[in-house]
Amino acid sequence: MSLKTSDVKFKDRIRLQLDDAVMRKAVANAQERIGANRQKMVDELGHWDEWRERAEQIRDHVLDNLDAYLYQLAEKVTENGGKVYFAKTKEDATRYILQVAQAKNAKKVVKAKSMVTEEIGMNHALQQAGIQVVETDLGEYILQLDQDPPSHVVVPAIHKERTQIRRVLHETLGYDGPETPEAMTLFIRQKIRQDFLSADIGVTGCNFAVAETGSVCLVTNEGNARMCTTLPPTHIAVMGMERIAPTFEEVDVLITMLARSAVGARLTGYNTWLTGPREADNLDGPQEFHLVIVDNGRSSILGSPFRDVLRCIRCGACMNTCPAYRHIGGHGYGSIYPGPIGAVISPLLGGYANFKDLPYACSLCTACDSVCPVNIPLSKLILRHRRAMVEAGLPPKAEQRATRLFTYANSHPGLWKVGMIAGARAASWFIKGGKAPINAGALAEWTAARDLPQADGESFRSWFKQHKAQGNK
């Protein structure tokens, strides 16, 4: 797995997703449930806009002083007995992790949920070297068994229903138990427990790193991250370079926003703080700790007009409210970062060559703007991508042709006049009862879901000329 999850063309992916009734139902139900829970928690907390402004200020302050906080973090981690590696590229990151694993003669790695390790393709790199990688997050474990990429940054298997999950467990692990979440969870827990006990290395992400103390914060609902960080003798934490908070005071605000925005809860089930490897008088913890800080294009984003996207705390709230995501799911985006945040960050990390379609997978309804806990102006950044692609000559070919045709007609008054008269008459024939014909050709995908005003066959110019002659204003 890496940033790009599919080589299927964007339009073909969309059609596949729109035809997947099970996925669409599962995603819609999850959006409704999580959205309702989030609203309850927002109302309970009160002064939500003030909290958002404070979270935005914290994230902006970190980005403004990122070099200083990275230095402080690295210094503190080293003082605590850990090792720090700055990875400029995803290849640098996977190479270092592989070197650590090979130095330990590791045969098995257990892994907690982490988007940045998906981004850099860590699993594939380790597996290519003959090292077994076991996902221990419940949803990620199921997806790994099914060789299926995640479709949400918080709820990776949001697109699957329990019948599908039972089928996966039966076909891969021989599960013959009932189709209840409790029974299937217990079965998976028993399987993963053996992996925890036999693993050589535990790998986690990092929700926030505290520069003041060199601590790493893991926010989970299942407790698997604690097993990954306490049972294996070596722990490797991988983080995006922007995921820093100055002190625990700022982390308190960010976790308050994260839990409510991600799953509609006051607090997640487990909030784990790790400060270096195990000391002599500690009962548990890793003997060795490595912190891999990943750039992979973030420093370029920091100095660009898209800087605000680095505020993101990976809560997934934008996906939980997005109407486009509701219909095409996460797999429609072809990136491990789907939804509105994916439409912004995927082209920045993976380039327009891979993700030029994503900024157009958006209706610009701005629902994502209204729920983002750190006030990222996602819709404006999506528009900025569209503008950048136009300036680079990369918009869809149909749009380029339409723009050239419009420009030519608009610069020739006679042709424009004829076109307006013909267009008005054609529209009066074409649109019946507010609907265009089903076989509307290239316009079908746009007109099929829209009510259109009935045209009367008269152009505005002729109407204006007639009424002006009559003395009407």
UniProtKB/TrEMBL annotation:
InterPro entries (alphabetical): 4Fe4S_Fe-S-bd (IPR017896), 4Fe4S_Fe_S_CS (IPR017900), FTHF_cligase-like_sf (IPR024185), Helical_ferredxn (IPR009051), LUD_dom (IPR003741), LutB/LldF (IPR004452), LutB_C (IPR024569), NagB/RpiA_transferase-like (IPR037171)
Name this polypeptide is given: Putative L-lactate dehydrogenase, Iron-sulfur cluster-binding subunit YkgF
Domain 4Fe-4S ferredoxin-type: 303-333
Gene Ontology MF term list: 4 iron, 4 sulfur cluster binding; metal ion binding
UniProt superkingdom: Bacteria
Native species: Edwardsiella anguillarum ET080813
A Gene Ontology BP annotation from the UniProt entry: lactate metabolic process
NCBIfam families: LutB/LldF family L-lactate oxidation iron-sulfur protein
SUPFAM superfamilies: alpha-helical ferredoxin (SSF46548), NagB/RpiA/CoA transferase-like (SSF100950)
One Pfam family matching this protein: Fer4_8
Keyword Transmembrane: no
Entry keyword set: 4Fe-4S, Electron transport, Iron, Iron-sulfur, Metal-binding, Repeat, Transport
